[in-house]
Q: What sequence folds into this?
């Protein structure tokens, strides 16, 4: 029996990295090296058997140490909107990771990418434009690469303060500026399953980008599902427009509004059949709401 392959997972303390790490840890074919900048947030992964290490992504020697004897890695970068230049800072970190992967001849890099918004609409969406630039850089470095592109994650309804606006007791508006255009969505847990599939089918998935999706709903349809499953709470589409999101003035609000403007254009295509081939039990929005009923209600209180 072949020795387990070591997979390094960047951003292991975050939503994407943690779900990828947990999924890979279930398979004895793999060992997981969880890379984080805050080891205190990864105790669960340690308990599950991950090797947790810290790495300074500004320091290539630190990244090199973290990637010693690694077969493949899952890479996700994050945007710090408190930085004077969030896009450039994130890009430099991704550039560092890519160069070290090239030097060490990592055999398979799976990168969580996004489309570039600025070149299409002229508006800045720095949290997406940075990742698009990193993905292009990785391709230019001829890394053995697979991209995964995620739509709106159901789980964002639990963390984004702008998503729900209270109208009165038990009555809320769902504030996502999509008009009548359907929103592609995915459960974050299904990302881990998709990445597991990619590492299991390296030759098939190499040099491809997979646009993952679990459901497609208008904001009104989402509100109707929430109203049905979370009674007595009732929801309606706020019919939010981009300028209203920008006016919320939270860090990155303009970037988020420009992102939704890009999404609403419909340039980005997601394939449910391809996702189901990789994740046969991919979760739809209704099922996710039922499973997360208590967490959603807690978010509203």
A:
């Amino acid at each position: 029996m072949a020795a387990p392959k070591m997979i390094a997972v960047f951003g292991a303390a975050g939503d994407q990295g943690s779900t990828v790490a947990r999924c890979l840890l279930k398979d004895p074919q793999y060992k997981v090296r969880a890379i984080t900048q805050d080891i205190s947030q990864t105790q669960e992964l340690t308990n599950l058997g991950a090797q947790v290490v810290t790495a300074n992504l500004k320091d290539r020697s630190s990244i090199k140490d973290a990637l010693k004897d690694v077969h493949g890695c899952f890479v996700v970068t994050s945007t710090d909107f408190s930085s004077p230049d969030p896009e450039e800072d994130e890009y430099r970190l991704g550039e560092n990771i890519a160069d070290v992967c090239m030097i060490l001849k990592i055999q398979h890099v799976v990168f969580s990418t996004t489309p570039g918004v600025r070149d299409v609409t002229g508006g800045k969406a720095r949290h997406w434009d940075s990742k698009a630039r990193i993905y292009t850089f990785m391709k230019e470095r001829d890394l053995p690469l697979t991209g995964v592109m995620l739509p709106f994650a159901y789980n964002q309804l639990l963390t984004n303060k702008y998503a729900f606006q209270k109208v009165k007791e038990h009555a809320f508006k769902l504030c996502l500026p999509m008009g009548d255009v359907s929103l592609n969505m995915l459960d974050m847990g299904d990302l881990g399953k998709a990445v597991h599939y990619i590492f299991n089918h390296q030759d098939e998935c190499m040099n491809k980008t997979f646009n993952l999706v679990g459901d497609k709903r208008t904001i009104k349809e989402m509100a109707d599902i929430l109203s049905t499953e979370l009674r007595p709470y009732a929801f309606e589409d706020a019919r939010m427009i981009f300028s209203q999101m920008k006016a919320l003035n939270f860090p990155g609000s303009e970037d988020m509004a420009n992102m939704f403007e890009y999404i609403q254009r419909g340039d980005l295509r997601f394939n449910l059949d391809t996702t189901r081939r990789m994740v046969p039990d991919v979760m739809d929005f209704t099922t996710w709401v039922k499973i997360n009923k208590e967490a959603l209600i807690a978010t509203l209180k």
In short: The chain has a mean pLDDT of 96. The longest helix spans residues 86-104. The two ends are 52 Å apart (CA to CA).
